[in-house]
């Protein structure tokens, strides 16, 4: 069965979960065409991401004239559908305060519809409830294939009405949340009649990449992984670290990632005189991320807003305990036997959790890590989760 995936920017260093899902669907027999509006290849460092970039059709790289010609050709062949989709685009654009942008989405959708037709695509699956889901909805209304989409959060949770999530959910064959918490939010913003088509399919890890976890180091080393954006709370982590090093002068944190708050984070490291306690690595390939996890006693995640982060799954698969904030889908995965949950936005609570980690004997930390490993393998095996998604897609195509 030929299907297509639609993402705004793909691949990205922070979106490897999409690549894993696509490849798992291919292992269960799907032929998957990758559509993305644009590439992020200038920032890619992982060879697997670079290979995925070569397999992806980046729509905007075709050029404005080619896209306009493709879209116009489809619209002229489907005039009634084009009128309906145009009305939808203007309505969605009015809610978002961006009608002109939604007409651009309409043109992109017409091009994607034409490409799906020529490729024999039977189903279109989008990742994120933002503009990829908008393009998927408009593509379907233009006469393209049925669609579904996965919502992750937290961006979608911040603006459900501006994103017209209720309408996108209503017209989709099904919609996917990556946690039970996420599904509960979709229930808030959709009609009760649409709730049966709201499904939970977890993002997944590839267990074979975590075959032999390294022993926990004796030194107090933490690793944090993610984009340096406001939702991740890394400036608060630096504040907490400034408190924790008073009790534990040997404490070290490795921050893997990059983003718009890098300057602020570097300034805070200087303010709290933590230069010898913090290492900033930038984005790293997956193999290097696993090396950093192996060198750490625990992962720490100070997020203010989340969906259900892949880095927590990867840390648990590497048999590392987790310190995280008790938000969104995190309590579904991190339990007392596998780590510590703390209130979001509380630097003192983060520092206290670091202290609790430091005071826990190494054999107990090792046991927590093994429990974490068993738990994540039971809940987030990518092949098992992709099989769930495959069944949903096949049922939608046969409906």
From TrEMBL:
Enzyme Commission number(s): 2.4.-.-
Keyword Nucleotidyltransferase attributed: no
UniProtKB keywords: Glycosyltransferase, Transferase
Pfam families: Glyco_trans_1_4
Domain of life: Bacteria
Protein family: Belongs to the glycosyltransferase group 1 family. Glycosyltransferase 4 subfamily.
Protein name: Glycosyltransferase
UniProt organism field: Gemmobacter fulvus
């Amino acid at each position: 069965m030929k299907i297509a995936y639609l993402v705004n920017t793909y691949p990205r260093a922070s979106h490897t979960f999409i690549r894993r899902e696509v490849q798992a669907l291919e292992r269960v027999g799907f032929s998957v065409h990758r559509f993305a509006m644009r590439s992020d290849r200038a920032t890619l460092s992982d060879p697997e991401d670079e290979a995925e970039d070569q397999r992806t059709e980046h729509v905007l790289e075709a050029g404005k004239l080619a896209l306009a010609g493709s879209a116009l050709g489809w619209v002229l062949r489907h005039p009634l559908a084009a009128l309906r989709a145009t009305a939808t685009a203007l309505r969605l654009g009015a809610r978002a305060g961006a009608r002109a942008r939604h007409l651009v989405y309409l043109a992109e959708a017409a091009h994607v519809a034409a490409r799906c037709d020529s490729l024999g695509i039977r189903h279109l699956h989008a990742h994120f409830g933002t503009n990829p889901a908008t393009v998927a909805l408009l593509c379907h209304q233009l006469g393209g294939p049925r669609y579904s989409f996965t919502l992750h959060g937290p961006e979608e949770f911040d603006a459900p009405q501006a994103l017209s999530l209720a309408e996108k959910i209503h017209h989709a064959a099904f919609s996917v949340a990556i946690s039970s918490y996420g599904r509960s939010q979709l229930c808030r913003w959709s009609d009760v009649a649409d709730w049966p088509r709201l499904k939970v399919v977890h993002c997944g890890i590839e267990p074979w990449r975590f075959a032999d976890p390294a022993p926990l180091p004796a030194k107090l080393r933490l690793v944090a992984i993610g984009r340096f954006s406001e939702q991740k709370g890394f400036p608060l982590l630096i504040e907490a670290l400034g408190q924790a090093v008073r009790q534990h002068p040997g404490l070290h944190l490795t921050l893997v990632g990059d983003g718009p708050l890098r300057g602020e984070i570097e300034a805070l490291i200087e303010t709290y005189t933590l230069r010898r306690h913090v290492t900033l690595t930038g984005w790293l390939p997956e193999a290097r991320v696993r090396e950093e996890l192996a060198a750490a006693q625990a992962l720490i995640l100070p997020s203010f807003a989340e969906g259900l982060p892949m880095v927590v799954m990867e840390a648990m698969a590497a048999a590392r305990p987790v310190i995280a904030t008790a938000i969104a889908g995190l309590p579904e995965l991190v339990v007392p036997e596998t780590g510590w949950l703390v209130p979001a936005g509380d630097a003192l609570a983060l520092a206290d959790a670091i202290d609790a980690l430091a005071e826990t004997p190494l054999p107990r930390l090792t046991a927590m890590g093994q429990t974490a490993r068993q738990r994540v393998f039971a809940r987030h095996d990518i092949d098992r989760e992709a099989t769930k998604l495959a069944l949903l897609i096949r049922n939608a195509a046969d409906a």
